[in-house]
Write a structure and sequence with these properties.
alpha+beta; 146 residues; homodimer; 3 strands; globular; DNA-binding
Chain lengths: 146, 146
DNA sequence: TCAAATTTGGTTGTGCGCAATTTAATTTTG
DNA sequence: CAAAATTAAATTGCGCACAACCAAATTTGA
């Protein structure tokens, strides 16, 4: 009964995971040059996106939005604090919560960051419908988390 | 002239990069449980996929297929060698090349690995057309590398 | 009311990814 | 042919991701 197993499903090209993994790394890598100019890494950048949107937000809520845990966020937020872009303060009504807030420098950085998505977007050769379809499917995958 | 800048493009939801990054991590994380059972990490797994397909392949060619460099592959391949799944030998006709080949144990592991893509696939709630469309677009993104 | 359970963030350790540099082997060229 | 250029892999160092564990604050519920 054995000897003739079908290993087709183990081919690199026959699993969705690999193109997803490779495309993610490829796109993230395109942020490197523009982000180097403003001195942020990719993860620091998406963290700043969240802080810019909320002005004040807890580590817990950043984690929910980015799907990252404290093991990733704690050292990253300390680094952003060192760079002077954010402040970290315990919430006075619940000392378990750590609130992250924007500094003046952090707010100023936002203007410089405006160029980043522009520079990346023009390297992506997809039709608008392809982008929106892609986003819809990806959100479906992410949404399956909960 | 300033004061009323449009920061819409800096919203987390308005860039393709984030859902791609999040979905990639989400899907890779679904491999963890099945891969734990056979003692491989995700990157070790896709490396074994390539070795299973080729039986003998150089580090250079593995890198081309997975878009990974020696900084990632060298320690990973040493670990796979320690586990007894592969052998590493310099190519006799070009000593710069390091050929990776399957051991008996490595070949046997392939049968156990057959369950992995099955277990992951059934956690992905996408229609077949969605999967194929997704793969097509992702390959378009990856293909832009060259 | 107070002990148990939960929540939040921090810490530690492992394994990638990737840039930058190094070393050795091979190929190209003057 | 010998020097220069190229190529392949290894090494080093940094920054994530993530699991596992911990401590402190808060909530709960008997």
């Amino acid at each position: 009964m054995s000897g003739e197993k079908n290993y087709e499903c183990l081919r690199l090209g026959n699993q969705m995971c690999f193109p997803l993994y490779a495309a993610s790394r490829e796109i993230v890598s395109r942020y490197k040059a523009p982000l180097d100019e403003i001195g942020l890494t990719y993860t620091q950048y998406i963290t700043m996106l969240v802080v810019w949107e909320h002005n004040v937000i807890s580590v817990k809520d950043i984690g929910k939005l980015l799907y990252l845990d404290s093991g990733t966020l704690t050292p990253l937020l300390k680094k952003l604090e060192q760079k002077g872009y954010i402040e970290r303060k315990r919430d006075s009504s619940d000392e378990r919560l750590l609130n992250v807030s924007l500094t003046e420098e952090g707010l100023a950085l936002r203007d410089k960051a405006l160029e980043v998505p522009e520079k990346v977007a023009c390297t992506i050769d997809l039709a608008p419908e392809e982008v929106s379809f892609l986003c819809r499917i990806l959100h479906k995958l992410i949404g399956e988390k909960e």
